[in-house]
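pinned: reference chain
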Amino acid sequence: MKTIVQALNVAMTYRVGKIDVPALRGVNLEIQEGEFVSIMGQSGSGKSTLLHILGGLLKPTSGNVVIDGEDLASVTDAQRTDIRRRKIGIVFQRFNLFPTLTAEGNIKLAEYIRHSGSVRDHAEEEKRRRHILKLLKLEDRLHHKPIELSGGEQQRVALARAIINHPAILLADEPTGNLDSENSQIVLDMLTRLNTELGQTVIMITHNAEAAEVGQRLIRMKDGKVLDSRVLRHNFETTEEIVSARK
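pinned: its structure tokens
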């Protein structure tokens, strides 16, 4: 099995005035290709800082982060941006959709940014886009702008945008934080389907114990360190098997 994410003694310290505030204190972890990992912890545990470092949005104070064979900590800012563009998809709690674009426009913009300056296979892009839209049940919402979509639909558009270019990893930052229970369950089910049906590696940050249970493995953090890691479920062929296993 291929290791897709590796964090080696990752530390992060913020400077607040004249005081150094440690957010991460030597985090070590490995995530395999095709895993769905939930990272859980209370506010201040360091989980969000870790996600931003894994996503190439922050550079750690020390340590190494290897994403699909490329070390984010040892490259320039421009190189790190390029790795993020090619290999990392991120879904935020607040959706972060462009309000003037339709659902389809938001998704196509991600494709354009990913392939800017390179030869594009438009037929293959269209095929993948239609498959993802069907998987996320968005076919009839393509021409709606974010204001015309429910919170759950907006988050599904954000999911489609994040995975449209087949990233090595999908990072989900509290993806149900702004949703009611019904839409939260829909989004969690969609994350599970992306993992089981597309083989998408998913790393989800959450403080919600019930949401964390959808992952295959749970990593708990406390005070900037990994507290423990345990398997919640093994790989299943279908979402129906996952539902059965939860009963």
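why pinned: The longest strand covers residues 3-16. Residues 41 and 221 are 5 Å apart (CA to CA).
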